[in-house]
Amino acid sequence: MAQLDLQAKLAILADAAKYDASCASSGTSKRTSKGGKGVGSTEGMGICHAYAPDGRCISLLKILLTNSCIFDCHFCINRKSSNVRRARFTAQEVVQLTLNFYKRNYIEGLFLSSGIIKSSNYTMEQLVEVARSLREDHDFRGYIHLKTIPDADPELVHLAGLYADRISINVELPTREGLTRLAPEKDGDRIEGAMAGMKSSIEDGVDARRKYRSAPKFAPAGQSTQMIVGADAAKDGDIVTRASQLYGRFRLRRVYYSAFSPIPDASAVLPLNRPPLMREHRLYQSDWLMRFYGFTPTEVVSATDDGMLPLDIDPKLAWALKFRESFPVDINRAPREQLLRVPGLGTKAVKRILSSRRWRKLRLDDVARLTVSVAKVRPFIVTVDWRPTLLTDRQDLRSLIKPTASQLELFATA
């Protein structure tokens, strides 16, 4: 490991970091280096690409400090017993890489995770040292996202929050049973204890900033977590319920889902095949239903078939087909909460409809101009000139409005 040059280390540790999905930069406070002071920024337009809620692409250097690990989690490619090439950065190597990449306009921030070496505390000290050096020694004002070690001393985890914009503490698997079976060295209670401590520190930091403007910011972009999908027997309904509990108890900014991927020299307790990537996508859609569309976890779970979200249609359409008594919805009269439940209407489309109907009654053509696909919306709405009559109750409605599967073309024109 000591004989590897910096480029070889970067190739190994950047590739190893691709399995970590907890990577986004939304919600951070704005900092710039205008005026010739400091290095970095969290504001500019953009090797990892994350996306802010407004659609901006944020480029992050996404690497591991090391892919060596003293733990032997069955699902992890970097587990102790895995036959992979190992590498390790020093804290100062990560600092210099981040600064050099930023000055070349390749990145706007750093996402740093790590396997556990020597001990949880030792690893956490190295992660904190990277963030400390960037902030204090180099006045780096770009985005920093640190993946913390739940077993580390709470004081070290607290220090991470003083330097990083966002903190991630992974629950790893949706159920306690799955964690015990596939990651026996990890403790679910300690993970949740670390998340509770981080939540408390974030709230204390917000209160302090309200009272004293000079108080230091603490993890201004909040905390997030990640769950691996498909490595254990948890169904989509279990995952949705668990995510809702995490949002409620720890006020997370995001729960990320990562579809399990078969790894070299896999343990016999793991599935032979990875779950469909569409399953991961449907879970993200269900997450948005709860966060932005007013759906309760129970309602999302009710859209499943035997606990699994359908793969051929999105969760909102699945819910609408199961609860047809809630439709059709009058576009010109329904409140925002009802409009958000109409398949095919997103938050922006609903906002446009509410604004437009203040001036005149909307017709079906008007709705078509305000939405992406009026064909998906028609069976569930009423306008001045349109009423679906028996369309909403048709037995074959699902087949009529579900998207047609097609092979994408690599060089197709927009």
Automatic annotation (TrEMBL):
Q: Which GO terms describe its molecular function?
A: catalytic activity; iron-sulfur cluster binding; metal ion binding
Pfam families, sorted: Radical_SAM
Q: Which residues form the Elp3/MiaA/NifB-like radical SAM core domain?
A: 59-286
Keyword tRNA-binding assigned = no
The answer, when asked if Iron is one of the entry's keywords, is yes
| UniProt entry keywords in alphabetical sequence | Iron, Iron-sulfur, Metal-binding, S-adenosyl-L-methionine
Name its co-factor(s): [4Fe-4S] cluster
- Entry superkingdom: Bacteria
- The protein here is known as Putative DNA modification/repair radical SAM protein
Species of provenance? Sphingomonas sabuli
The signal sequence is: none
